[in-house]
Automatic annotation (TrEMBL):
Residues 4-121 form the Response regulatory domain. PROSITE patterns: HTH_LUXR_1, HTH_LUXR_2, RESPONSE_REGULATORY. Pfam families: GerE, Response_reg. SUPFAM superfamilies: C-terminal effector domain of the bipartite response regulators (SSF46894), CheY-like (SSF52172). It comes from Streptomyces venetus. CDD domains: LuxR_C_like, REC_NarL-like. Keywords: DNA-binding, Phosphoprotein, Transcription, Transcription regulation. The modification 4-aspartylphosphate is found at D55. Coiled coil: none annotated. Residues 150-215 form the HTH luxR-type domain. This is Response regulator transcription factor. Signal peptide: none annotated. The keyword Ribonucleoprotein does not apply. The keyword Ribonucleoprotein does not apply.
Length: 220
């Protein structure tokens, strides 16, 4: 089955470019488009895409609020890939904090766009870990840090789960973590699932942001 994608951007040329790149791949299908975040929820309910590739800045409802609304109101929501002009953008970080699974620069090369969609759909690696770390270092606020520290303390991760979370924050995939720890991939998947459940994180991106904001892992 192909990875299905919904494109959300107020610039028609951006949507056309993304569609052309993605539909050139045999394993990816663009199932719909929208010009604003306000249209995301009804389209997701109608089309059930695997991934929503969404601009972070839009005139009526931006990608941050659209992400929050989507995750709050839709059962089994799709993966969310924020598409942005600027990498070092507080809007991007807020979208990730709101629940987006990763971000992609509009100037990315076609191969990077395809890789990002596939990686987000698979969900077993962190997209652009160095950039996420940089965003956490610059935009993580003190109030958020206090809340994240409390959540991390409540999680009571085991020593092995803590080790897995640190490796996740470095951007290692499940297979790479398994090789580093000399265990099976299924064992790593179990540890990752336990980390997400204990932290109340939707995916590894949210778990890694919690790790940075709590001070469990230094973002610098």
């Amino acid at each position: 089955m192909p990875v299905t994608v919904l494109l959300v951007d107020d610039e028609p040329l951006v949507r056309a470019g993304l569609r052309a790149v993605l539909e050139a791949q045999p394993d990816i299908e663009v199932v719909g488009e929208a010009a604003d975040g306000a249209a995301v929820i009804p389209l997701v309910r109608q089309l059930r895409p695997d991934v929503v590739a969404m601009d972070v800045r839009m005139p009526l409802l931006d990608g941050i609020e659209a992400t929050r609304a989507l995750l709050r109101t839709v059962d089994d929501p799709p993966r969310i890939l924020v598409v942005t002009t600027f990498e070092n953008d507080e809007y991007v970080y807020e979208a990730l904090r709101a629940g987006a699974d990763g971000f992609l620069l509009k100037r990315a090369r076609p191969a990077e766009i395809v890789h990002a969609v596939r990686l987000i759909a698979e969900g077993d690696s962190l997209l652009f870990p160095a950039s996420v770390r940089q965003l956490a270092a610059e935009y993580g606020d003190e109030g958020g840090n206090r809340a994240a520290r409390a959540a991390m303390e409540r999680a009571q991760l085991t020593e092995r789960e803590a080790e897995v979370l640190r490796l996740m924050a470095r951007g290692l995939s499940n297979a790479e973590i398994a090789a580093r720890l000399v265990v099976g991939t299924e064992t790593v998947k179990s540890h990752v699932s336990a980390v997400l459940a204990k932290l109340g994180a939707r995916d590894r991106t949210q778990a890694v942001i919690a790790a940075y904001e709590s001070g469990f892992v230094a973002p610098g």
